Amino acid sequence: MQPCRFGAVILVLLSAWHVLLAAEAHAIGASEPGKEPVVDAGPCLSASEARDADKVLTECGALIDNTKVAKSDRINALIARASIFITRGEPDRAIADYDVALQLDPSLANILNARGELYRKKGDRPKALADFAAALRLNPDHASARSNYHTLAVELERLGAQMAVAGRPSFNCATARRPVEKAICADPELANLDREIDGSQARVVREAAGPAAARALQREQDAFIAQRNAEFGRAGYDLKKAMQDRLRRLNGADGY
């Protein structure tokens, strides 16, 4: 996820929290006899508004660790502290704070979505997808969660398709007869290169500027295959390098 987008999510969470804490802090006064003293959430609110990371960790941390603090104040303090951990590049600690917030209130769709984004950034796609789905169950109109779920589901589908053909060349190894084809079938890296070359060749032919250009591209590919078949096994011939060079030529300097 892009940093600016994630920062916008955090600002939305914090702005809602600031309004709530301001109202609660205003109502704080002397405690009634026989009742627990009211914990002042004001310093945590002020630290968050001032973007003072050290004070957020201290003041909001004091609220989080105090079990006598109102649940809403603890949740908001957890959100504020998590935002600091995110800006400091500590996603695991931010996730831990989101975990506690969700234990206190499992209905927080925004937090589920935010935690899912952290999981996705860490590369834990299954947990990310589960969080996005849970956020949508709570709020089917959650635009960010819907977008995140869709893009991640497409990504997982693409990765699954790639895994299904990983280590397989573009041709049927069961009918391979040439020594070079058998060598490609025996080496997953070479097999993947062969499949990528075949896919890139199909693309450039499809995108060619007319039939004549397409035929010229196909002749170039046929010449590469013929040279590969003839030179494989000869001293100094590097099959892997030849295939990598061919793929770079097809994809161009920009990789596509």
From TrEMBL:
Presence of the UniProt keyword Glycoprotein in the record: no
InterPro entries: TPR-like_helical_dom_sf (IPR011990), TPR_rpt (IPR019734), Ycf3 (IPR050498)
Protein's GO biological process: receptor-mediated virion attachment to host cell
SUPFAM superfamilies from the UniProt entry: TPR-like
SMART domains referenced in this protein's UniProt entry, alphabetically: TPR (SM00028)
Alphabetically ordered keywords of this record: Repeat, Signal, TPR repeat
Signal sequence coordinates: 1-22
Domain of life assignment: Bacteria
Single GO cellular component term: cell outer membrane
TPR repeats: 75-108, 109-142
The protein, known as: Uncharacterized protein
Source organism of this protein record: Bradyrhizobium oligotrophicum S58
